[in-house]
Design brief:
single chain; 135 residues; mainly beta; Elongation Factor Tu (Ef-tu), domain 3; 7-stranded antiparallel sheet; two-stranded antiparallel ribbon; globular
């Protein structure tokens, strides 16, 4: 079984100029992919236990890292400007050098965090639009 160090992980997100930008250098955490799918209840009277059927995928990606306001490449520019964007943006996630998860997502939440004794950070919640593709 292969094991991978997170230093090889890469996360890219669209800018408003429709260009995937690698934001990995700012990130300390990537979670939520490939995501979850909803299960709808299909239990009927007389069943001995709950039954469920698979339904839609429902993905949420969470990112955390160090704040940077560099024009065009910093996370404040990339994620902060997306809160008012009117279309879902492309993303790509490579947990290792060979596997890729991709799709489109909306910036649902972007927060800048400051705490005494720590670097200024940020957190982002991306809500997946449609399915996540695994390649």
């Amino acid at each position: 079984m292969a094991k991978f160090n997170s230093r090889v992980s890469v996360f890219k997100f669209d800018t408003t100029g429709d260009s995937l930008t690698d934001v990995s250098a700012y990130l300390t955490e990537i979670s939520g992919l490939p995501g979850e799918r909803e299960l709808i209840e299909s239990t009927t009277i007389g069943d001995a236990g709950r039954e469920r059927e698979p339904n839609l995928e429902n993905g949420m990606i969470r990112l955390a890292g160090f704040y940077d306001d560099t024009a065009t490449t910093g996370p404040d520019e990339i994620f902060g400007t997306q809160l008012t964007h009117t279309s879902a943006m492309n993303f790509e996630y490579y947990p290792d050098a060979t596997q890729k998860y991709s799709g489109t997502a909306w910036v649902r939440r972007y927060e800048i965090t400051s705490r005494v004794g720590e670097m200024v950070g940020f957190t982002v919640e991306l809500e997946v639009n449609g399915q996540v593709t695994r390649a």
